[in-house]
Design brief:
Elements: H1 10-17, E1 22-23, E2 29-34, E3 40-46, E4 51-57, E5 63-70, E6 72-78, E7 84-92, E8 95-104, E9 108-115
Antiparallel strand pairs: 1-2, 2-3, 3-4, 4-5, 6-7, 7-8, 8-9
Protein name: ASPIC/UnbV domain-containing protein
Organism: Streptomyces thermogriseus
């Protein structure tokens, strides 16, 4: 069963969080964020494959988290006065969930994937 992965266009991403996504030769859109502590988070997504990868590295470049997941259905960016966040919804057969990523003022990830 194929479901569509709804993602904002590049202009909407820029208007919401002030960053332009990059793209690679395969059409994967990539955003990189850095917090005040020197940690970085790279979000990459491919709409046709419905896939998302989140990589979080500390200030010395050591990878702390690397999550790859398919079955994404919606990607949304939420601006705020003091915080900015990303929400990614997933639906994979009997499981559904949400990954919430705070990108400002500091990086944080909450991930829930549960049986329906």
């Amino acid at each position: 069963m194929y479901g569509e992965f709804f993602t904002p266009d590049d202009e909407e991403v820029y208007d919401t969080i002030g960053e332009w996504p990059d793209s690679d030769e395969n059409g994967t859109r990539i955003l990189t964020f850095q917090d005040a502590f020197g940690q970085s988070l790279m979000l990459s997504c491919h709409a046709l494959e419905r896939s998302v990868r989140v990589r979080w590295m500390n200030d010395q470049g050591v990878e702390l988290v690397d999550v790859f997941r398919e079955g994404a259905t919606r990607l949304a960016f939420t601006p705020g006065k003091s915080t900015k966040s990303i929400s990614i919804e997933f639906h994979m057969g009997e499981c559904a969930g949400v990954m919430d990523i705070q990108i400002a003022p500091q990086l944080a990830i909450q991930d829930r994937l549960l049986f329906q």
